[in-house]
Amino acid sequence: MGMDLSALRSLISRINRYCAGEENYVDSRTVYIGHKEPPPGADAFIQQRFPDNRIVSCKYTFWNFIPKNMFEQFRRVANFYFLIIFLVQLIIDTPTSPVTSGLPLFFVIIVTAIKQGYEDWLRHKADKAVNQCLVTVVQRGKKISKESCRLTVGDVVYVKEDETFPCDLILLSSSRDDGTCFVTTASLDGESSHKTYYAVQDTKAFTTEEEVDSIHATIECEQPQPDLYKFVGRINIYMDNESVARPLGSENVLLRGATLKNTKYIYAVAIYTGMETKMALNYQSKSQKRSAVEKSMNSYLVVYLCILISKALINTVLKYIWQADPNRDEPWYNERTETERQRHIVIRAFTDFLAFMVLFNYIIPVSMYVTVEMQKFLGSYFIMWDDDMHEKELDEKAVVNTSDLNEELGQVEYVFTDKTGTLTENNMEFIECCVDGQIYDADAICNGQVMSGAADIDMIDMSPGPGGRERKELFFRALCLCHTVQVKEEETVDGIKHGIHQGKSSSFYISSSPDEVALVEGMKKLGYTYLRLKDGHMEILNKEDETERFELLEVLSFDSVRRRMSVIVRACSATGPGDIYLFCKGADSSILPRVISGKVDEVKARVEHNAVDGLRTLCVAYRPLTSEQYQQVCKLLNDAKLALQDRDKRLAEAYELVEKDLILLGATAVEDRLQDKAADTIESLHKAGMKVWVLTGDKMETAAATCYASKLFRRSTHILELTTKRVEEQNLHDVLFELSRMVLRPPGSMARDNCSSLSSDCTDYGLIIDGATLSAVMRPPQEDSNSGSYKEIFLEICRNCSAVLCCRMAPLQKAQIVKMIKTSKEHPITLAIGDGANDVSMILEAHVGIGIMGKEGRQAVRNSDYAIPKFKHLKKMLLVHGHYYYIRISELVQYFFYKNVCFIFPQFLYQFFCGFSQEPLFDTAYLTLYNISFTSLPILVYSLMEQHINMDILKKDPSLYKDVAKNSLLRWPTFIYWTVLGVYDAIVMFFGVYFLFDNTTFTSNGQMFGNWTFGTLVFTVLVFTVTFKLVLDTHYWTWINHFVIWGSLVFFVLFSLLWGGIIWPFLNYQRMYYVFMQMLSSGPAWLSIILLITASLLPDVVKKVIWRALWPTITERIQDADKLYKGQLSEFTPLASLQAPPKAAGRRRGSENQRNPRSCSVFCCSIFKVSSFTPLSIFSPPVHRICFSRSD
């Protein structure tokens, strides 16, 4: 009865917590291995329902494709708007056929539906192939095959080497004696290294199907969640009517999509299947990012919608004013019926308003959305096809995960970058270690012996003394034991032979952490070799070639919060069990506060010295444990591991209690070299006007040294520190206000952004801040505090610094930094770049996220918008591709609005001459095909091929990036200019043809042209004018441009001849019959076409010539110089040829950066190769080179 009441209370407690919606509450599931019921007296058998192993990545089914796809497409504002216009044309009597709106709309809808349907069909095929593959399952002591989709939770699965796991599994046993197996998770996170997973201790001996089928156990674990690296559970094994509980963690879980390697076979039980596997849960798409260009497009659409409504309202009002006179009720050819006369005036006015809306609706182009989508999609392939962004060493090319942000690459103002693996190689090399103040250099010692020529190096300790020798050996043993490195004998792995040295078989080390491999290999140089982990014992070979064995008792895994890891081992000897040790290694900030003895000052000094040299440092300590202490530790850790609720929190608390009272042994130094051309890339980004921030978890000294080496900081940079140490000396309020007074210039002084990179007038500031201080800065102000928020002051300081280094950053803090800058009042465009899982949060937060294909897995690549092999490729990605994409799409957007103003404004003017009768000026075919066929392809090709400046020049002179910064080509003045130009061209076309028609006989037989000839002549001038406008704006010509531009004009002429030259039987009217041929038969018509095209384009040409002569931009000077030297700008090009005329030096047009003659002089120096005879001091201040030495 007591048990029943306890179970009832537990159930009520669960219901209450569920109803309360506690976020931290994680429900659990019970899995019965082999679907066997627990024995009597154990927990009640409750058969739970779980999904099958069917994977569904497709979006639609045969039955819901049409309604679901239509719903998604008409959620777009433009599609919904044109649908409403189409319905209005169907319902009321409108001047144009519903075909004119319906055909373009349904063309777009159908093309999009076919594209999405085809993509979904491919997903269906892929799902079917995966779901129908055969899997081996153990049932009743035998192996049987079944389709993957029929696999259920609780099935025992048999997997052979090189096979992929069909679902998420708990490892029960393997072909290896120690119950381990090796797995690659490249398809999940890109890590190609072999990871080790462990079988349950009590089941690892069951290696046949009969033995595995005899297992009687249940698994309690958390419900499915997407974190690949987290799992909480326990297994209850029933033996002789007794239950033994063992903890289960991520080291026991084999994830769907991973592959078994170097292990003949394994037996495992399914715990998550189908769409509940961790791989499937990670299918969730990222939040949609919108570019600045898209936001500008939406703003322009709102303006044009207002213009459309205004036009319709004006025409409606004028129509009723014109009809106020009873004698001018309606023209005789358009007289209203009696039914129409009896309608209420409000209804008639509203109907007329809708009719005018339909007539003028072409000012908002539905085809622009399609063209922009095609431009982005096709343009993304230029990045992936770029051979300059192909890394031969890795055999990797750039990857585009989303094409929606191509133009955003040309608008970046802030770059947030990780350090390790992004700026550096993440290829670790052991440099030295310090034991009790004695230094051991890896380059001076080989296999424990001092190399010849190294005796004069004062860092080599020849005789440390008796006590020192014991601590030195303990230090070396600690590094040989405190790690998760695996040893591989010589074998073929993925087709590559490893471990062969001079024809002999040897071993090599693999680990998920390159630091650990470097340390173990460093110990091998110093005479202590880690051999293997076998049967729970770690073996090392000491300097005297004696094998030492240590029983591995516990592993306290590394995590980013503790920043350390520990192992508990027991020494083994011939006489029996030996001493028990806890060895701990980690960051100095994590180890030193827990140390109670040792030569702390000497080791700390060496750590700081190595950090300044840019080396990665770790401290090593130990703690001897008695048997009683170990038993307490073991119980504490087991209790925490068995917990299903808050296991991570309880483990962290247990680790804190265990890792204390340490004795410091020494420290290590590992070098992570700077990536090739990383310094050049950062320097180019600075010259392009971008501010670069480094966000890293490393200590300040190490990160600062890397920043100097990568030219983020220069020797002339005035470093400002906002660190915990300084805040402890002064309070945060005083430090912030002191820094703000230092960096903020008095009113009237030159803004920092406008200071030339060659100018010494501006003090160059760099800021260093750590994670703890950042938390204090970001903390919201207290109600009783009068200090206010420090965030704005901090932001103001950062704005006036050329570079910022944030060290000791947690992943969440990286995202907070990016969000703080992104949401500041200037709303700058941000870019985040990183290579590891800890960078994913900031990559997702930034406007543009870039992942690097590094050695820390592919999580950053999978979550990024773009992926590149190396940091150096960021230079071309932004300065060339980003620049081009922004130029192209800005012209595309402005040009689309321009050509539609030219298209629809004559229709507006025509209403003043037809009694506001809603009579269309152009034929239905022209209205329909104008944006679909006649004018769409030339601008699409332009937006894919245009190169207004040679890409080599863009790379040589990064300052050209400033010409397009801050969305400069889509600002309101530019938008207004294009709109006014469209209105002018429309007026010239309409009234030019109107006045040429007036009192003039156009045909040879004396006939006058009619209204359809009038409209056709205006339309002909329109098509040629807007096409020639694009010709004038094109700088980079290819055969594709020529073919599309002249081909579009030829197609228009041929279509017009065909459309008007045949009596089409399916048409009820033949109003265009012979109109186009009759027009072309008239000499005055030809003359008017030529004159009106010239008159339309002339003002734009004159304006460009005058502006280019008097106030040229840097870009225009480059274009002129490139034409002058026929694309061969060289070191012999006179610099004066690009200088601004003296009379124009004081004048400005556009942005400050665009027209700054001083900036132009900077460009002149940078794009040309300076000869060996040219004094560098003419061009720039001396460059300080930083050389780091390993010695004092």
Automatic annotation (TrEMBL):
Membrane topology note: Multi-pass membrane protein
PROSITE patterns, per the entry: ATPASE_E1_E2 (PS00154)
Catalysed reaction equations from the record: a 1,2-diacyl-sn-glycero-3-phospho-L-serine(out) + ATP + H2O = a 1,2-diacyl-sn-glycero-3-phospho-L-serine(in) + ADP + phosphate + H(+); ATP + H2O + phospholipidSide 1 = ADP + phosphate + phospholipidSide 2; a 1,2-diacyl-sn-glycero-3-phosphoethanolamine(out) + ATP + H2O = a 1,2-diacyl-sn-glycero-3-phosphoethanolamine(in) + ADP + phosphate + H(+)
Binding site for Mg(2+): D418, T420, D835, D839
Coiled coil residues, start to end: none
Domain of life: Eukaryota
EC number: 7.6.2.1
Keywords, comma-separated and alphabetical: ATP-binding, Cell membrane, Endoplasmic reticulum, Endosome, Lipid transport, Magnesium, Membrane, Metal-binding, Nucleotide-binding, Phosphoprotein, Translocase, Transmembrane, Transmembrane helix, Transport
Main location: membrane
InterPro entries per record: ATPase_P-typ_cyto_dom_N, ATPase_P-typ_P_site, ATPase_P-typ_TM_dom_sf, ATPase_P-typ_transduc_dom_A_sf, HAD-like_sf, HAD_sf, P-type_ATPase_IV, P-type_ATPase_N
Subcellular location: Cell membrane; Early endosome; Endoplasmic reticulum membrane; Membrane
Limits of the P-type ATPase N-terminal domain: 47-101
GO MF annotations, alphabetized: ATP binding; ATP hydrolysis activity; magnesium ion binding; phosphatidylserine floppase activity
Cited NCBIfam families: ATPase-Plipid, ATPase_P-type
Record protein name field: Phospholipid-transporting ATPase
Source species: Oryzias melastigma (Marine medaka)
